[in-house]
Structures are given as structure tokens and as C-alpha cells.
Amino acid sequence: MKKLVSGFRSLSKGWRDPSPSPERGAPVLKAQVIIPTTPPGDEHPHAKILSLNLEVEEPLGEGMGNKASVGDEEEIEVDLPPPMRPIPDILPPTGALEEGTTAQLATEIEEIVQKRMMESEEACADSSKGEGEKLDEGCGVSVSERKRAYVLEELLETERDYVRDLGEVVEGYLGLMRDPATEIPMPEDLRGGRDKIIFGNLEAIYEWHRDVFLKGLEKSVGDAEEVGLLFKRHERKLHMYVVYCQNKPMSEFIVSEHIDSYFEDLRQRLGHKLTLCDLLIKPVQRIMKYQLLLKDIQKYTERIGREGEVRSIAHAVSVMHIVPKEANDMMNVGRLQGFDGKITAQGKLLLFGPLVCSEGSVPLNSKPKELQVFFFEQNIIFSEAVGKKTQFSNPVYIYKAHIQVNKMSLVEKGDEEDPLKFLLRSTDPRKPSLSFLCSAPSQDGKDEWIRNLQLILQTQKDFLKAIQSPIKYQKNRLTHPN
User: Fold this and answer.
1) Which end of the chain, C or N, has fewer beta carbons within 10 A?
2) Which residues partner with 425 through β-bridges?
3) Strands 396-404 and 336-337, sheet pairing
4) Count of Cβ atoms closer than 10 Å to residue 239 Cβ
């Protein structure tokens, strides 16, 4: 049986076992140094902790494994057959939202606003033209203020609907599955932990939205600035969705095996109109809709001209741009196959995307090929996409090679004749011929890769300085905070 991996645990977790083994030889030297991203004295919650392997060429051993984490302490062994039918697409592989899905949601929101505008015509005649900010004679407020109010109402109303939908999963399906006296027995192959993988951390998401976020919206929904601050305050908590989406492909596969039998019996018993699949996709749809609703609120707030409120909403928009992107990145990591290291030990995924690469000791002489490149804190992994993205399936990424980040050099101008190319070369003496000449799809794309590569390389230099001379390093930080 093929072992599918659930990346349910955050990639930033996972430390290698430093004990020696016959196969691996010397143990990996571990060091943990806190490198602040802000000047000393500032209490910043995102002080960076970087883990590097300094002696061993790569953190290998366990392989990617077949353990699906369902909590901070518990791991469940899962053996799954290869998928015989496509898993429905959740988020686009590029990290951007699906154009069709985004357009559909945007149109839906606009239609709701227009409908409410029309419904208010009888009580509040609209005397303004186009999108001007002339006051409505019957209302005393601008068109944009009215439209913004309708979007804020839509945010609250759909949040209530969302909490109700999540409740149907947690209090409905989970309640029945946990009931030892239920008349619908759980199939044997769902026991032993597989049932937990189905729902991931959805119960925690439900309880937080029900007890915290919905109540916050109810208190602040009439105030756009407070809505923005609400998203800002809960920025870290919203990253629960990254974990949820990371587990989603595994969940979809398991559910698909019983959707017409066991879960259909549960649905009929509960009297639900929606299937379990329809309900489990709700969190993914919700984080997409947050972004679009907030963008509309920002648009109308800008037209009104309230700068303080614009700044607050703009931050919320930024948060809800990052969360779906990181969620999608984690799903792409779940499609990586053939990498012989433990993926959870590679650190945070800093960047992911296609690069046209030439491989070899003299990259200029090899044939370029488009590869999907995963840039983690510990390794840069080069992979090849196999299969095409369709309405119902995504390609998988087959491992080709990797360069350990702490044994890598960067040449920003890889080709004098092509400004989009840069060279990545392994400095590991055991891999003298390993190098990739990479070409980004655009200048902005190259700039993003170079910026992230330079940042991690500089961070590693700081890390080594801190190990070699920690007292001197701290004094320099105090003397030269920037």
C-alpha cells in the first residue's frame, strides 16, 4: 500500500533526533538562537527562532512517514491506497484564488448590495449619480456609506450562517460518531484514528467562531474600524485555517470512501440537506469570502474618505490575503512525493512556485525545464509536476533534488544576457556538481525569490555569529540594532 502523508502538523514544528545511528553516522549538531526581527527592547511576538543542521548534509531517516497528527501530542498511523478517483480541487496550486470562484463570490456580494439598495429605494430615494458621494436626500448619507453598511451586515449574517453550518458537523456528525449507543456503527476502517483525520481541527474552529469571533462581530459590525481591529487581534488564531486546509486532501480521500454509505446514513439520520463534503468545504470557502467582503468594505471606506478606518480595514485585508495563501501552500506541500526527508523538519515554507531550471555542474549546457520549487528554511526542494490540473484534480509534485540552505550559495546574475536568471549552487563538498540555473517568470518574480534568498542567507550568517561568539553578537545587536 502507498502511504499518503497528512501534513496536519505545522511545518515550523519538528526537530530531528540528535542521537547517532549506524546509517547516519555523526549526530546532527543542534543549536537554537533567538534572532529578533526588531530592535532590542521592542517586545515583538514574532522573534525568529531558526534551527540549522550544521554537520549532517540532510535531515533524513524516517522519510516523510505515514503519521497523521491529530493534536500536539498524538500521532495516528495511517496506511492508504493510492487514490483511484480525483479529489475535488480545494484551492488553486499557484496560491492565488481561482478566478472563477473569486469572480462568482464577488458577483454574489455585489448582487446582495444592489438588492439591498433597491429594497431601500422606497424609504430612501437615491438622488446621487454613479458612484459620487452626493448625499441621498431621504437618507442623509452617501451611496458609499449605505453600500458599506450593507456589506458589514452581510459579513455578520453570513458569519451566523457559517457558525450554524459548522455546528451541523460538530454537534451532528461528530456527536453521532462519538455516541457509543448510536444505531449506525462506524466502519472498522474508520477506527483507530482515521475518523479524527476527517475533521482535523474543525471542532476548535467552530468553538472559537461561536464563542469569540461571532460575538466580536456582533459588537463591532456597525463600526468598520472595529471590524478591522477584530481581524488584527485574532490574526494568529485565524491561522487555524492553515492547519485545517493542510489536512483537507487526506480528509477528502477518507470521506470519499464512505460518502455514499456510512456518511449518507448519518446525513439522513440528522436530516441535513447538505452532504458531509459540502459542510467540510465551508471553512475553505469562508476564508475566501472574508477577503472579498473586507475588500469591498475597504473600497467603500476609501470613497467615504475616512483614513483611520481605511488603515484598519487594509490590515484586515492583508491578514485574509496571507491566510488563504499559506493554507494553499500547505496543500501543495501535501502533494510532494519522493522526498526522503521528514517534511515537518524543514522549517517554514518561505516561497513556492514554478521556475525554469537547468541542472548540472555547468547549468548553461543543460536543457531547461519548468520545476516546482519549494523554498523551506532548511532546504530548497526541486520537483516536477506530474498530471494536469483539472476541475476535479491537481498535479502531484515528484521530487528531483534539493539543496541544503546552510550549504548553498547564490549568484544573483546567473546569466548576463537574461536578467531573470539566478544561480543556486550547493557548497557541500560531497555534492560539488549540484547546481540549478533558475529563471523566474517575471522581474517581480525574480525580485521576490532574491529577496527571500538573501534574507535567509543573512539570517544564517547572524545565526553562525551568535553560535561562535554569543556575547559579541548580543553587544553588536545592542550597538547596531538595525
Assistant:
1) C
2) 409, 435
3) parallel
4) 16
Q: To 5 degrees, how large is the angle CA 81–CA 83–CA 84?
A: 110
* CA gap 273, 278 in Å, rounded: 10
Query: Which pairing describes strands 32-35 and 369-376: parallel, antiparallel, or unpaired?
Result: unpaired
Read off φ and ψ for residue 48, nearest 5 degrees: -90, 130
* Strands annotated E in 1-110: 32-35, 48-51, 67-69, 75-77
Per residue in 38-74, pLDDT (tens digit) is: 333 333 333 333 333 333 333 333 333 344 444 444 4
* Helix boundaries (H) for 209-281: 214-220, 224-233, 240-256, 262-270, 276-280
Instruction: Output phi, psi for 337, to 5 deg.
Output: -125, 145
The backbone torsions φ and ψ at residue 21, rounded to the nearest 5 degrees and listed phi first, read -140, 155
Closest CA to 366 of 417, 436, 440: 436
9-35 residues labelled b (16+ CB within 10 A) or e (exposed): bbbeebebeeeeeeebeeebeeeebeb
Cβ contact 325:92 at 8 Å: no
Question: How far is Cα 24 from Cα 275, in angstroms, rounded to an integer?
Answer: 48
Closest among 346, 308, 393 to 90, alpha carbons compared: 393
- Structure confidence by residue, pLDDT tens digits, 187-204: 998 888 888 899 999 999
Q: Please give the Cα distance from 9 to 50 (Å, whole number).
A: 18
As given in the structure block, the three cell numbers for residue 136 are: 441621498
User: Cα 387–390–392 angle (5° rounding)?
Assistant: 110
Strands 369-376 and 67-69: unpaired
261: CB partners within 8 A, 6+ apart? 187
pLDDT tens-digit readout, 268-291: 999 999 999 999 999 999 999 999
CA distances from 42 to 393, 416, 466, 481 (A): 46, 43, 20, 11
CA distance 368 to 383: 13
CB 284 within 8 A of CB 90: yes
Cβ count near 211 (within 10 Å): 10
- Any alpha helices (H) in 281-374, and if so which ranges? 282-304, 307-334
* Residue 362 DSSP one-character state: S
Reduced to 3 states, what is the DSSP secondary structure of residue 291? Answer: helix
Q: 454, 430 in Cβ contact below 8 A?
A: no
Contact 331, 91 (CB under 8 A): yes
pLDDT category, 96, cuts 50, 70, 90? very low
Q: Closest Cα partner for 223 from 158, 289, 306?
A: 306
Task: Give 370's strand partners.
Answer: 356
| Packing angle, helices 99-119 and 143-167, rounded to 10 | 120
- Grid cell at residue 22: 549506524
| Cell (9 digits) for 425 | 549552487
- Alpha-carbon distance of 316 to 223, in angstroms, equals 14
